[in-house]
Every structure is written in C-alpha cells, then in structure tokens.
Amino acid sequence: MTKVTYQIVEHDGGWAYKLGDVFSETFPSHEAALNAAQAAASEQRLAGKTEGISYQDAEGEWHEEVAMGSDRPEAEVESEEEESGK
Fold first, then answer.
1. Domains held by the chain: number
2. N or C end: fewer C-beta atoms under 10 angstroms in the chain?
3. Range of the domain at 55
4. CA neighbor of 14 nearest in space, from 33, 32, 27
C-alpha cells in the first residue's frame, strides 16, 4: 500500500501543509493548518469509483490505466511543531 504524509510547515508568513513539494494555501495558525491537513488525509483514504485515467510522464509519453477506486493510500499528518517539541 502506498503511504502519503502531509507535513505541517511554516510558509509564507503563516502555516501550511504540504505533500511532497506542493504547498496548501497559507493558514493563520498551526492549528488551522493541522485541521486542514487532517481533513485532506481523511478524504485521501475514501474509496472512489474505478475509472480509466490518462496521464503524461516526465518524458512526454501518454499512458492509459485503470485506477481502482478501492486502491487508496495510507495517509498521515506530521507536524514540525510536534517534532521539535514546541
């Protein structure tokens, strides 16, 4: 099973969550960003419909696959504040 981790980080004068190199909007508090990340992680776990998808890879090649709606990642949230003991 794939695992994704949302990280709560200081960003743009406030707080945000990020997944990989992608940041969410900026929130005014750590708590607000944490709540938003927990909501996003919960939604990530929900099963969807099995559908055909098309995507382009880094080399510009197009691929078609069937995405199983039940194939959901394990999602968790990590916080800078919790790790540093703030």
1. 1
2. N
3. 3-84
4. 27
Buried b (16+ CB within 10 A) or exposed e, 14-24: ebbbbbeeeeb
User: What's the Rg (C-alpha) of the chain?
Assistant: 16
User: For the segment 4-63, what is each residue's pLDDT rounded down to a tens digit?
Assistant: 999 999 999 999 999 999 999 999 999 999 999 999 999 887 778 888 989 999 999 999
Q: Give the pLDDT band (50/70/90) at residue 84.
A: very low
Distances (CA, A) of 16 to 21, 32, 52, 74: 12, 9, 32, 20
Give the distance from CA 81 to its chain's centroid: 18
Question: How many CA atoms does the CB half-sphere of 24 hold within 13 Å?
Answer: 25
Residue given tokens 């750590």 in the structure block = 30
Q: Which residues make Cβ contacts (< 8 Å) with residue 45, sequence separation at least 6?
A: 72, 73, 74, 75
